[in-house]
């Protein structure tokens, strides 16, 4: 990914982009196509042990045991922070997984980036988060349903291969701003670049003379 | 060199966002088009219908007499453009195969290296190859 990093690195807007989760309060929402591509293509390394299953289980355990999940301080959070990622706001109907029409274009922007050759060989985890309004168990379920809805729209409407996407709901367990747990800023969707679909192809053969 | 890279990046990003010369609209533009003239009807009649399930379209059809015709026209245009762009993105490397072998020998696939090579070699690229890359949204 070094080449695109160089490309985009030359753009003025790069200065406006936060490093991935540079700090909860300063994390920015990716609003433009350029920001989405920039965020998702910054991967320099992957963490094979960090899977959708691990994340789901972690959140589920915290809710079941009614233990606070200090994700912002955990080892997993630190590892997540290192992944290429973006945070986007998707508008859902209140308390449901229905994506509101005003966010259709945002889904399209994500699809534009994922379909581009820069990202075509990569896989992603779509993570849904809520604020602390409502119960923890409800929020966990709702955020999983919302992440599922995003994946479904990306696959069915915009033709992203389902092999490249996994949905994870973290409920209220990974607040963006833990000091303001009910702030709507915590309701957000994160997309992490987690690995490659397959090995990169071999170099193009030289034409026979 | 920096200026060259900047220009290339701008071209790439403009291509991603769609442009007046593209034969298809970007996925973002397609989503925005559906939202623009169907959004109010979806919010009014289809509040429990989700994108990607077929429910939205079925619901709009069920309220055909109350939904503006512009919504159906735009919905159809957006879906057709999305389908055309997906097809172009899927076929692009096959259509461009001869050009890739000719102009990009030794290039390591991945990270848009092949696309960048083709754009660099634009003067010798066949029209069919360029055309499908435009439809794919990867070439301005």
Topology:
The complex is a heterodimer of chains A (209) and B (140).
Chain A: H1 2-9, H2 33-40, H3 52-64, H4 75-81, E1 85-88, H5 104-115, E2 122-129, H6 136-156, E3 165-169, E4 188-196
Parallel strand pairs in A: 2-3
Antiparallel strand pairs in A: 1-4, 2-4
Chain B: H1 2-17, H2 27-45, H3 55-62, H4 69-95, H5 97-103, H6 113-120, H7 127-135
Helix pairs in contact in B: 2-4, 4-7
Q: Can you describe what's shown?
A:
The complex is a heterodimer of chains A (209) and B (140). Chain A has a domain at 51-196: 60s Ribosomal Protein L30, Chain: A (2-Layer Sandwich), CATH 3.30.1330. Helices cover 33% and strands 12% of the residues of chain A. Chain A contains 6 helices and 4 strands; from the N terminus they run ααααβαβαββ. In chain A, strands 1-4-2-3 form a 4-stranded mixed β-sheet, sandwiched between helices. In chain B, helix 4 (69-95) crosses helix 7 (127-135). Chain B has 7 helices and no strands. Chain B has one domain (20-135). Classes of the chains: A alpha+beta (209), B mainly alpha (140). At the A-B interface, helix 1, helix 2, helix 5 and helix 6 of A face helix 1, helix 2, helix 4, helix 5 and helix 6 of B. Chain A: It comes from Ancylobacter polymorphus. Chain A: InterPro entries: Bact_OuterMem_StrucFunc, OMP_bac, OmpA-like, OMPA-like_CS, OmpA-like_sf. Chain A: This is Outer membrane protein OmpA-like peptidoglycan-associated protein. Chain A: It is found in: Cell outer membrane.
